[in-house]
Amino acid sequence: MPKVQVNGIDLFYDIKGTGEPLLLIAGFLCDRSYWSLIMPSLVSRYQVIRFDNRGMGQSSAPNSPCSIQQMANDVAALLDRIGIDKVHVVGHSMGGQIAQELVLAHPQKVNSLILLSSLAKGDGRFNSLIETWGDLPIHVDLKLYEKVVLPWIFTDGFYSIPGMIEGLIEFAINYPFPPKSHTLYHHSRAILGSDTTDRLKQINCPTLVLVGKQDILTPVKFSQQLAQGITNAELVVLDSGGHGFLIESPDAVASVMLNFIKKLKLDAMQGDDSIQAYIDLT
Predict the structure, then answer these.
(1) Is pLDDT at 108 greater than 50 in this prediction?
(2) What are the Peptidase S33 tripeptidyl aminopeptidase-like C-terminal domain coordinates in residue numbering (predicted)?
């Protein structure tokens, strides 16, 4: 899998599938592998681009402050380097913050925007958690860190599945590209320093805001704020899943995403061409 040099770092990415380009931006503590469970549904219809944010996975991990805007610039540079002019953009959590900054800085690059479990600005409890999650890695090992974080990501129902949480922790411990402590610190501060509240109205592309009803990290009220602030935004609240619904409810998430983009295509067509397009899409 290839790397490209952008903004002084090496950014690791992969591309799978054919069709219109669809870009996936992962959130805090996650690299491109976080999308694995919904990839089969997406690559059957789209050219799916995943990458590791600076500091994560196999991308460079400089021990220096970064911002959400800087990570959005990394994305824009990546698209330029791989020759993608326009793309559907999906961001989860911090990845949704990056996606917002991408469309604000480079609106011509974005066909549509899908914000999963994301936010414009955190409240007091959220900010306290993210600050702690940035500070904690130098004090505890990865196993304990995961045990602290995961209750905020997954629902009671997911915890009740025998061996599920233990399996996720084991996967994280044995993962060959674990996050570095300084990366988690710098990413946490980037999240805390991000605020798009007063600029949401500048986002004019079709936007889907999707959140799990049981999300206690980025609760429904955060997504409501996004949907109310963004012109042409649609809010969908899934009954199943919390912040980690890409793992808990991947089929439901993929279905809502695909239906949203399909509807955009149909709305852009007229008459008989629209009917034929529907046949082709279904």
Answers:
(1) yes
(2) 203-268
